[in-house]
């Protein structure tokens, strides 16, 4: 994620505003669309005329106008790629959270469900094939964040730190399980 953001900041391309906020679960969101009303957020003007990034804090209000600068086609393509990646990340995280919160036993506020639906609507693809890929990634993320994978990663850490006795074969099998099932598709 840091690489994506630094790539967005490093390339002085057409101006864009990125909104950053933290939801009630502590998940950091970066999006090209504003968060719901009343949510505190920061803005980052990517590709301003100075070639830098300007951060501004806000609580739902306007944070200033973006300035456009001339950009090469490669810079525009790079910016578009970074923004598409951010939108995809936001989509996958919102879909995973919607699935988890609507199928779980924890009480969830209607406002949070509405916010997640708005985030998914603003960031998920309208192309059915791409949307299915995003839904599959959300399912993978749910598994990767689930208790079985948390336990598997902790066991692997204990094995590699030699806190538990494990043969090289047991470590290899544990690593293969973690690699196959417990790597989040988005960071």
Which tags fit this structure?
alpha+beta; globular; 4-stranded antiparallel beta sheet; 187 residues; 12% strand; disordered N terminus; 6 helices; single chain
Describe this structure in a few short sentences.
With 187 residues, the protein is an alpha+beta fold. The protein is 53% helix and 12% strand. The longest helix has 31 residues.
Write up what this structure looks like.
53% of the residues lie in helices and 12% in strands. Mean pLDDT is 81; it is low at 1-14, 48-54 and 61-67. Helix 2 runs antiparallel to helix 3. With 187 residues, the chain is an alpha+beta fold. The chain folds into two domains: 2-144, no CATH class; 147-181. The protein is globular, with a radius of gyration of 20 Å.
Helix amount, in percent?
40-55%
Order of helices and strands: HEEEEHHHHH
| Overall average residue pLDDT | 81
How large is the share of residues in beta strands? 5-15%
The number of distinct structural domains comes to: 2
Model regions low in confidence, pLDDT < 50 over at least 5 residues = 1-14, 48-54, 61-67
Lay out the secondary structure.
Elements: H1 2-10, E1 16-22, E2 28-31, E3 41-46, E4 53-58, H2 73-103, H3 110-123, H4 128-144, H5 147-160, H6 168-181
Antiparallel strand pairs: 1-2, 1-3, 3-4
Helix pairs in contact: 1-2, 2-3, 2-4, 5-6
